Amino acid sequence: MLERLQDIVPRFFSLTTVIDVIIVALFLYWLVLLIKGTRAVQLIKGLVVLLVATAISNWLRLTYVHWLLSQAITALLVALPVVFQPELRRALEKLGGGEIFASPLPNLNEFNLDQVIEEIVRAVYVLADSRTGALLVLERTTGLEEYIDRGVKIEGIVSAELLINIFAPHTPLHDGAVIIRGNRIAAASCFLPLTESVQISKELGTRHRAGVGITEVSDALAVIVSEETGEVSLAVEGVLVRGLDRPALADRLCGALKPKPGRRSLAFLWRKK
Predict the structure, then answer these.
(1) Do 189 and 89 sit in the same domain of this protein?
(2) Total domains in the fold of the chain
(3) How many whole angstroms separate alpha carbon 133 and alpha carbon 195?
(4) What is the pTM of this model?
(5) Are 212 and 193 in contact (CB under 8 A)?
(6) pLDDT band at 4 (very low <50, low <70, confident <90, very high)
(7) Span 145-187, pLDDT tens digits
(8) Chain-centre distance of CA 111, in angstroms?
(9) Helix-helix angle 85-97:63-83, to 10 degrees
């Protein structure tokens, strides 16, 4: 036994083994950074839950449940390249462009979150008064990196003046959406998926459909200013609330971004103005 250990230990602590472990660790760290800020995080969580449920069903000898979960995992393994297609594309693009390590998502404390909401509300109603169309998307838990990559990177501190200038007519960035991550404007001129819901009024255009669409595929908030009427709307989880005044919008943004314990996610939408 001692002779076997003496043979294994030098090989384990050899230079090539250390380099091998470091490379694998860096690769795993890069994968974590890559999926951080994307919907892949939620997909991986769902896959982990499915794997755990499969193991538990096998341990409890739930034959039919275990068979059903095993078949689901097999189907998912085949579908993974399709499900993670945006993330795989981003990985190859970053690898080819030399962007191996990405910056982590910023965290907001209560003070600058209130300041961000104040700046957004101020900009929205300046735009509404001048009937300037606008679409602002506020990222929450689900990352929007794939949409940010398609837009024009800004990385500027959120301010009413900057938002107003971005959406000014006849400027290069006024088309598309602004995506706000934390207290920064991550990108402008971003194009979002359109909702196919039949619940959306036919009088609403592409801007409103894009605002609702992004909230159907993520937990983001979308604030929309109508170019025709100057009406301000808020979309959350595929639900659109129209005709919000300044206090109502600020109240709903606070309710969504700083939910109180026990409050349902959409409860703040239905409070009286």
Answers:
(1) no
(2) 2
(3) 18
(4) 0.63
(5) no
(6) low
(7) 888 888 999 988 999 999 999 999 888 888 889 999 988 999 9
(8) 22
(9) 40
